[in-house]
């Protein structure tokens, strides 16, 4: 684990700015699903007055609670925790959906998002060969460059590999469960989904 210039970097952190740019103006309440040790939740707190982060991993939540911030860190299951429906202006999730049933996770996020709110996801999916080989090789090259110049921070949270859902399957799920969502495949072995919930 290396950190250069005092800043952490890995594939997930690389895409945090994409999440933060999606935060809607005037957002009051945000939820970070699968918050781990809370890095993204703390970044969200710079833009949103009330932020909650939820994760099933107790050591990660314990680590997050050591930071002097006012984020509400919850040890629990996002799929069953008794959040109020339509209670968040923004829901963010990075590298979490492959830990749970992706369809159930997307539906739960949709349920908890208020009308007009924004869902911003960065996730991992499974490559299919040989179709994804050129993109994956390009990602390895770019990743090697970033690691050489920025170092690489290994997060302490549990990992799941390989992801159970492929990139095309994830795109199809997003289109079905979040009509009108924007799905994008990224070079560093990630995809993103952004979606604004329609007003009632």
UniProtKB/TrEMBL annotation:
Please give the CDD domains that the UniProt record associates with this protein.
Answer: AdoMet_MTases (cd02440)
**Alphabetical keyword list:** Methyltransferase, Transferase
Q: Which GO biological process entries does UniProt record here?
A: methylation
> At the top level of its lineage, which domain of life is listed?
Bacteria
Q: Where is the Methyltransferase type domain?
A: 31-121
Membrane-spanning ranges? none
- Per the record's keyword annotation, is Membrane included, yes or no? no
- Tell me which InterPro entries the record gives: Diverse_substrate_MTase, Methyltransf_11, SAM-dependent_MTases_sf
Single GO MF annotation: methyltransferase activity
| Protein family (similarity comment) | Belongs to the methyltransferase superfamily.
Name assigned to this protein? Class I SAM-dependent methyltransferase
Classification from the root reads: Bacteria, Bacillati, Actinomycetota, Actinomycetes, Streptosporangiales
